[in-house]
Structure formats: C-alpha cells, structure tokens
Design goal:
The chain is α/β, with parallel strands linked by helices. The strands form two sheets. A seven-stranded mixed sheet has the order 2-1-3-4-5-13-14, sandwiched between helices. Strands 8-7-6-9-10-11-12 form a seven-stranded parallel sheet, sandwiched between helices.
C-alpha cells in the first residue's frame, strides 16, 4: 500500500514533484475542513497551506496520520499539544523565506529614505510641486538597530554592511544570544533608539511597549520598520510622533489596523503600509513547499530527527513535538 499525503491545490510544482519522485500517492484535499479531516483518516501526512486543526479535528483525522506540514507560516493553526499527545509531528518551513524577507526589509529602508510612497501619491494626485528632494537621505554610512535578533535580521545586517557600508547594532531579547562580530550589542533600548537611523523590530515585545517615551528618544530623521509584531506599537502615540516630526516615518504591517488609532496610522502620509505576506517571492514559496515535502519524506521514512536537521537541502525547518522544539 502506497504512503498517502493529503495536499491542496496551492502546493507548488517543486514540492509536488519531490513527493511524486519518491512514489508517494498525493490526495487532493477538498476545501471543507470536515471533509479534509475525514479524508485524512486514510493518509499518513498532510501538507496544507490553510485551515485550523483543533484537538477535535486531529482526533477525527485518526491514528494513521503522522505528520502535518504548514508551509510558509507559523504552526499556530495547529493545536500543538493535541498533536504531540497523538504522536503527530508538526512542521513549518517559514524559514525558507528568510532571503525574500531580508530583501523586502531592505526595500522598505530604501522606500522610506527615498520617499517613494509619498512621491507616488503626489504624482497620482497631480501635486508634484509639493515634493522636495531635501527630505531624501542615503543609506550609505547609516546605522540600523535591531530590537531582537533572528535569521532575517542577521541577513539584513549582512547585506546592508556589504552593499551600503551601514553599521548595525542589536538589543537581543536574550542577552546570552551570540551576535556577529560586525554587529554591536546595545546595553539598553534607550541607547539603541537614540543611536539608530533605522529601528527594525524582530522581537515579540509586550503590547504598546513602543510608545511616546520611545519615539521621543529617536532621531527626527530616523525611521521605524515594524512589518510584524505590530501589537508592540502604541498607534496613537506613533501618529502623534509622526505629526510632530519626532521621527521621519515608519513602515508598518496591516495588523495595526485592528488596534485603536491603527486605521489612522495606516493612512498617515509618512507611513509605508505592508500587506500580509507581501515580502514573499515566487522563489521563496517554491522553497517552502520543497522543504516541507522533504520534511514529510524524512519523517515518514523513519530517519532520525537529527538527520533531518542536518539535511543539506533543508537547512532551516522547525519541528514541534513534546520534548522537542528544534529549529535547524
């Protein structure tokens, strides 16, 4: 009997072909979640881009299911404790998009300091006389500060140093976290805000932590880049700070629109709006599906998990299981 994998129509050709080449039988999932759960009873793994898997649905899927892959997103849609209790591995391949996220963050730096969004607005409103190049700045020699440190921050810092000779500093969430020799370690949030020309959020901060007091410490020529973890922003205070020119601008994700004053912030002329998943590329989406398919194959073949972590073609995936939460 062939090993069966439940997939959806969003699976890219790279992931689909990888599984077919290894003689897996692919079963196309229906859109209805209850129907998916029923169909999963006859499958060994699921590789699905959408849907929420609660304890009840996982139990409905039956005992044959061994792996759930959610390419390109965090494993939040899956009840991890229930999956662990049922002996199911949960895998995501979001780290396969690190390259595209880093490039997008650098694009936001350029968009902010070159007033690209404002210029586009003025051109389409036929008000180009209001544009002044005096508001433009250069990236070369500027300093970028990271609140939190992850793979994306490391790649942004590396690319900015090589391409624009930019300095980097970081306030890691864990003070024991190792940083590259080319990245300065900040001892406090106050110092990072005061010294940085760009402040990039890469940490899960407490809600509203970035408030009026923080914006007061930033340079009036500085930009805030917050394309995720938007709950860390006090949107009302950021609106006031932009209006009072306490900082030059910001790039924020759409999540701010769900917060008080978030819609007002989203429409500010000094704000570059970031839509969900806009930082992904065609190449990144293909890599995510390929890495997810490789993870399915490795686990179903019974290979030791350390082998999965050191697989040369899958350098970065996350695994969730009771007693093991690894990130390769």
């Amino acid at each position: 009997m062939k090993t069966r994998v439940l997939v959806d129509s969003a699976l890219s050709d790279s992931g689909r072909q990888y599984l077919l080449d290894r003689y897996y039988e692919l079963v196309v999932a229906p859109e209805d979640m209850d129907s998916q759960a029923n169909m999963a009873q006859s499958c060994d793994a699921m590789l699905l881009h959408q849907g929420t898997w609660s304890r009840e649905r996982l139990q409905q899927a039956g005992t044959r299911l061994k792996v759930i892959c959610v390419p390109g997103v965090a494993a939040d849609p899956v009840d991890l404790s229930a999956a662990s209790a049922l002996g199911i591995w949960v895998v995501d391949s979001d780290a396969a998009g690190v390259e595209s996220r880093a490039e997008y963050e650098i694009a936001l730096l350029l968009s902010c300091c070159k007033q690209i969004v404002r210029m586009d607005y003025l051109v389409h409103s036929q008000n180009t006389a209001a544009y002044s190049p005096a508001g433009n700045t250069e990236l070369r020699g500027k300093k970028i500060g990271f609140i939190g440190w992850d793979e994306t921050a490391a790649l942004v810092a590396h690319k900015c140093r090589l391409a624009f000779e930019m300095e980097s500093c970081c306030l890691p969430q864990n003070q024991l976290q190792m940083l590259p020799a080319t990245v300065g370690r900040c001892s406090s949030m106050e110092r990072l805000l005061a010294e940085s020309d760009f402040v990039c959020i890469h940490a899960a901060l407490r809600p509203g932590m970035l408030d009026h007091a923080c914006f007061c410490r930033m340079k009036p020529t500085a930009y805030l880049i917050c394309i995720a973890n938007e709950w860390a922003l006090n949107c009302s205070d950021l609106c006031d700070a932009l209006w009072q020119e306490m900082l030059a601008g910001a790039a924020v994700g759409q999540g701010v629109r769900q917060q008080p004053s978030g819609e007002q912030l989203w429409q500010q002329p000094g704000v570059v709006p970031v839509l969900p998943l806009s930082y992904y590329t065609y190449e990144a989406l293909n890599r995510m599906d390929l890495f997810a398919a490789q993870a399915v194959d490795t686990i179903l073949c019974g290979h030791p998990i350390p082998e999965l972590r050191t697989h040369p073609e899958t350098p970065r995936i996350r695994l969730y299981r009771e007693g093991y939460q690894g990130k390769a």
